[in-house]
Write a structure and sequence with these properties.
By secondary structure, this protein is α+β, with helices and mostly antiparallel strands. The protein contains one helix and two strands, in the order ββα. It has a domain at 50-77. A hairpin with a 6-residue loop joins β1 and β2. Residues 1-26 are annotated as: Disordered.
Length: 77
């Protein structure tokens, strides 16, 4: 039985964890060239956020979303 306890100042509430489906699945298929083109089009349609300059190169950084911690990878045309 898996449980999670929350509480403040000695009070405890115990919540039983949900049962997750852990059956194995097939790996994701490889992307086709058409899928890559579609992702590139989505990437180009995203708003660009103003970012500070890259400290190493001195060039402006290029991130598409300010709330995303990892920059989106450029896709080949």
């Amino acid at each position: 039985r898996k449980c999670v306890a929350f509480g403040a100042e000695g009070s405890e509430e115990v919540h039983t964890a949900d049962e997750w489906d852990r059956t194995p699945t097939e790996p994701a298929r490889k992307l086709t060239y058409q899928d890559l083109l579609e992702l590139k089009e989505i990437q180009r349609s995203l708003p660009r956020a103003n970012q500070p300059c890259d400290l190493l190169s001195g060039r402006p950084s290029r991130h598409y979303l300010s709330a995303v911690p990892i920059g989106l990878l450029p896709l080949l045309p």
